[in-house]
Amino acid sequence: MQGDDMYLLTVVAEAILEEMLIDEVRAMGAAGYTVTDARGWGRHGKRRGNWRAGGNIKLEVVASSELCERIAARFKEQYESDYGLLMFTVPVALKN
Amino acid sequence: MAFDPVVLFFLLGAIAGLAKSDLKIPMAIYEALSIYLLLAIGLMGGVKLAESELLPLLLPGLAVLAVGSLIPLIAFPVLYLLGRMPRADSASIAAHYGSVSVVTFSVAVAFLASRGLDYEGHMVVFLVLLEMPALVIGILLARMGSRGPTRWGKTLHEVIFGKSIFLLAGGLVIGFIAGPDHIEPLEPMFFDLFKGVLALFLLEMGLVASSRIADVRQYGLFLIVFAIVMPIVSAILGILLGWGLGMSLGGTLLLATLYASASYIAAPAAMRIAVPKANPALSIGASLGVTFPFNIFLGVPLYFWMAQTLYSLGG
């Protein structure tokens, strides 16, 4: 996967969406993903980790700029209106 | 009125939360406690069920499900028409109140145990069965007059294979297969320690509920009154049905508690997927911040008193 112009797409979303988001990421052809449990506060209120449906997850995908854009656009269309969702990309340099 | 000491642990947790104590039950322990409680309740019911005849349970079971399905159908118009709440919120809250709470049920089981009263093992079967219909009715109520697809597959998977139903039903089957004789080696773990583990779980519930109690003012008086009156109405339905079906006093209390309790684990997860327009803070706030404490402190003793009165009057 080493190459130019790789991006890290970070998605912070409600934990309840985990499986759906992962299914979408895989279907769109990402080479991999990392999920961690997360807590925080934002427009959708305090997100407590100690609560199966109420916590947040942080989903990270390293992919080409084009794929990151496609995934973000898809999530925006599908989930943004009804769920807590924060997405951003940063350029990354892969070391292996 | 003397409170069962287990519910005082809830109060302790709530005080810790409101006072911003650094007390926190680690996530992994919370998970372990909930797995234990679900399995223990399932096993207890399964062992009792092994001692009873199954076929005569069919008709009472259908009656319990039918009356249970009425609860969201009563709650919805009250919220939607009387409370003038949005359709999605009304439907989601109605589903929470029609569904059941395992921990409230556990508190009622502990309440009966401390009074030496027995109950029918199939109450746990009802506990498993009653979780689902209200959720489906809630989703259908929310769907009426709205567009877009519902994520049915994902929702049903969440309900059936979510850990609450899965472990309750699993414990029930294991207890049923083992029966009273073979369950003995597991008794010290699952039966004798039950109340102590419940106390720890309620401590955590108090902590979680306190973060909801702080928001209660935002919900408005209507929802707070609803969260107290609705369980009483549901409990009365349960007491009349239990009495009509000739259940024991203990069984009737558990049925009343099941109807009165509102879900705050399975229902929020299912509703968040199937009715995303509904605000989860409203339904969880009402069920966990108001109805749950009401039920464990005042509701269960009240329903017991009502059932006792009916049984002494009606024979």
Could you characterize the architecture of this molecule?
- The complex is a heterodimer of chains A (96) and B (315).
- Chain A is an alpha+beta fold and 96 residues long.
- Chain A contains 2 helices and 6 strands, in the order βαββββαβ.
- By secondary structure, chain B is an all-alpha fold.
- Chain B has one domain (5-314): Na+/H+ antiporter like fold (Up-down Bundle).
- Chain B contains 15 helices and no strands.
- The longest helix of chain B is centred in the C-terminal third of the chain and has 35 residues, at 280-314.
- Chain B starts with a helix and ends with a helix.
- Classes of the chains: A alpha+beta (96), B mainly alpha (315).
Q: Architecture of chain A in CATH?
A: 2-Layer Sandwich
Count of spatially separate domains of chain A? 1
Overall shape of chain A: it is globular
Radius of gyration of chain A, in angstroms, nearest whole number: 13 Å
Average pLDDT of chain A, to the nearest integer? 86
Described by strand count, sense and barrel closure, the largest sheet of chain B is: none
Which fold name corresponds to the CATH topology of chain B? Na+/H+ antiporter like fold
Q: How are the strands of the largest sheet of chain A arranged?
A: 2-5-1-6
CATH class descriptor of chain A? Alpha Beta
- Number of alpha- plus pi-helical segments of chain B: 15
The string of secondary-structure elements of chain A, in order, is EHEEEEHE
Under CATH, the topology of chain A can be stated as Alpha-Beta Plaits
User: In terms of structural class, how would the helical and strand content of chain B be classed?
Assistant: mainly alpha
What is the CATH domain class of chain B? Mainly Alpha
Shape of chain B: globular
- Say how many strands of chain B there are: 0
Largest interface, with Cβ-Cβ < 8 Å?
A-B, 16 and 19 residues
Oligomer: heterodimer
